[in-house]
Amino acid sequence: MSAVTDEARGWGRLAGHVADGVLARTVHHVHRAVADRVFTAVGPIGTPVRLAHDVVSEGVYAVVRGSLRGAGHLGGVVAGYRSRHHELPWHERSTAGSRLAAVAHGLLGELAEIAPSLDLPMVIREAGETVPTGASALAEAFPAATGRIAVFLHGLVEDESIWGPSEERTDRVCLPAAMAERGVTPVRLRYGTGTAIGRNGAALAHLLEELVQGWPVPITQLVLVGHSMGGLVARSACGQAAALGHTWTDQLDHVVYLGSPHLGAPLEQLVHRWTQALGRIPEIAPFTDILERRSVGIRDLRHGSLTERAADIAAVAEFAEPASDEPWLDGVDHHLVFGRLARSERHPVNRVFGDLLVTASSATGQGGVRRIEGERVHLLAVPANHFGICWHPSVAEHLADSLAV
């Protein structure tokens, strides 16, 4: 079976999984919860009716849910037949396909089990293609390679297209292009954001080791730029690389964190508390179950967990936070960029909402209880929301000044 056909069938299995596991399952369980409450109120006199109701309803839902799964599989087979003439899978050749796969992976994180062909490993992307880390492949993909590299990591449910450029928005600055103008070769990465941050950090550390060894010219400067979750993955990779004795940290000069929730993401914390509280109500529990199916990567954002062990420790107690945080990697300049919704830095909106998704205290690692220590730390406040940070001119200017040779 070709990769294109396998991918199409994977999309079908995913569609069937969502239709059954999310939509039909939710309706089924709400129906069951409401019926149980009614029959409990009626008492023993309603037992015969309850037995008949349960037999009929469970049978109907079994048929409906099985049909949805079957329809998804059949749709995948048909799509695979129609796309058999393509050379590359849809999420490899199309921006729309890539973005859809990124969203699916980031939200569910189960694609390796549901549809392995849709899984998103940590890879280099250049000119719409995946680039192996071998010396010949890197030389072909980056013919104008310089000794200064900036590696870009996107955030949750994103792909490498987040960095632009955008033909519709001329006010946006394409950060990789801005770096290229200053002699820094941009290297965009793609990875599945539904995977645990610690596991993606390990994959990044391994990829950077191969990248440094296979780069066409000697590397004089290595920079990591991560948006949101991408910053946590970069920080995780730094810690794991130092522990494993990787050599790429010797070339690492700067790490740039664009709105990264080092102390946790408020939205994920709110969702966790909400699901824990409302999940006890039978009629509402099926809806909270949908949120409980969120990916491991999203769950790691609750406390900004950098390793799978840290995430496991935090999960032992429902509302526990890590007792301490690893300091910023020594010998490297760390640039903590945080956004604000209101123009005035002291505006209460900024204190509460930050850039809409991440607060300034979390983005800078300086909370009331938790603090990340380090010497070469630089702060930059940007009047932009969580996503606008990626394209803001102030960020490009700051990096141009910081990376100047």
Give an account of the 3D structure:
- This protein is of the alpha/beta class and 405 residues long.
- The chain has two domains: 3-117; 121-265 and 321-403, Rossmann fold (3-Layer(aba) Sandwich), CATH 3.40.50.
- The protein has helices spanning 3-42, 47-82, 90-93, 95-108, 111-114, 135-141, 175-180, 197-214, 229-244, 266-278, 285-292, 296-300, 308-316, 348-353, 360-364, 393-403; strands spanning 123-126, 129-131, 148-153, 185-190, 221-227, 252-258, 333-339, 377-382.
- Strands 2-1-4-3-5-6-7-8 form an eight-stranded mixed sheet, with helices on both faces.
- The longest helix is centred in the N-terminal third of the chain and has 40 residues, at 3-42.
| Biggest β-sheet strands, sense, barrel | 8 strands, mixed
The total strand number stands at 8
The CATH level-2 architecture of the largest domain is identified as 3-Layer(aba) Sandwich
Runs in which pLDDT lies below 50 for 5 or more consecutive residues are none
Q: Within the CATH hierarchy, at the fold level, what is the topology of the largest domain?
A: Rossmann fold
CATH homolog superfamily of the largest domain: Alpha/Beta hydrolase fold, catalytic domain
For the termini, the CA-CA separation is 51 Å
Give the C-level CATH assignment of the largest domain. Answer: Alpha Beta
| Lateral arrangement of strands in the main beta sheet | 2-1-4-3-5-6-7-8
Please tally the helical runs, counting DSSP H or I stretches of 4 or more residues.
Answer: 16
What is the chain-wise order of helices and strands?
HHHHHEEHEHEHEHEHHHHEHHEH
Q: What's the Cα radius of gyration?
A: 24 Å
